[in-house]
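Following up on my earlier thread - several people asked me to post the actual chain instead of describing it. Fair enough. Here it is, all 125 residues.
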Amino acid sequence: MNNDSSAALSWTLVGTWQLLSREDFTRTGERRADPSLGADPFGLLFYDGRSKFATQFMKRVRDESTTKVIQTSLPNNSRAQDGYDAYFGTYTVDDIRGTVTQRLVGALTSDGAPLVRTLRWRRVG
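Reply from S.P.:
Thanks for posting it. Predicted structure:
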């Protein structure tokens, strides 16, 4: 994330961010595109200033040939769409180190495969 070095990260972080790039790597260093979202998804990230965040990702091309409806027995995710993902949680900021730590509270999907994910964002609001 880009921020003004004269202001504290905890202050400049609050707002809306647009995804610039997303790269996933396996433990062995192999680059892996998300099978549901592709290598270049749309994404938005929101920080509320009160330690809560939420993010959404969507596959760039979503037509009938690339999406499917996933039926589940879970009451609040009964018609999850392939090509869309979202998660939310809490965050803490270390202004001295310039780091943000996110703690996941809930997610639409998760396959459990361990990855190293690097996300680059641009502030849009």
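Residues 76-80 have pLDDT under 50 and may be disordered. That should answer part of your original question.
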